[in-house]
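--- STAGE predict ---
source: upstream dedup step, 1 unique chain passed
mode: sequence only
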Amino acid sequence: MTIDWATVAIQTVNVLILIWLLGRFFWRPVAAMIEQRRVTAQQGLAEAAAKRDQATAALAEIERTRAGFAQERDAILAAAHDAAEQARATRMEAAEKEAAALEAAAKAAMAREKVEADKAWADRASRLAVDIAGRLAVRLDGPAVRGIFLDWLLDAIRALPEPARQAVTADGVTLEAISATELDPADQDRYRTLIGEAFGAHPPITFTVNPALIAGLELHGPHFALSNSWQADLTRILAELSHDNRL
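--- STAGE serialize ---
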């Protein structure tokens, strides 16, 4: 086989020229493009890494914020719970105080009602006792009882100071003798004489009847009165009993 060295030389030159042309007009732009793309890709990767770092930092900040929110929420809930417990305790204390006040007021009212009821019953009992005594005293009226009341009246007149007796028997003063039952004329004359002797004078005396006295003899003047009867005694006793019942 014969090698045509001239052809080989020409082909070699052509290959070298092709390689030169590819190196100058193809491979350099392609390499530059590839390098540019590599640099761009690295920049993109760097930017992506930076954004990823930013996102990671943002996520960390969000987590810290969420943790802060959770802590704040827990603090708010705890404060609200404490406030609710304090309010409940305050309401319970106020309710207990109000209940105690109501109970004390109710007990005081019951005590007052009991005292008033006791007083009312005591007053009714006193009035009933006085009424019974009055009914019984009516049956005791007679000459002996009238004589006793006359003696009491005369003693009361004699016990008056002298100026008072003189004022009662001054000129123009008429006295009124009141009895529970009507006195006959003889008794009236005797009573006038005895009453005049007790006063040391003889003032005019008229006689009237008041059954409400039950028994007794009272003497009244314009500015003078001697209560001397069962009615006066029972009224005084009832007043004393009523006073004792109010104590």
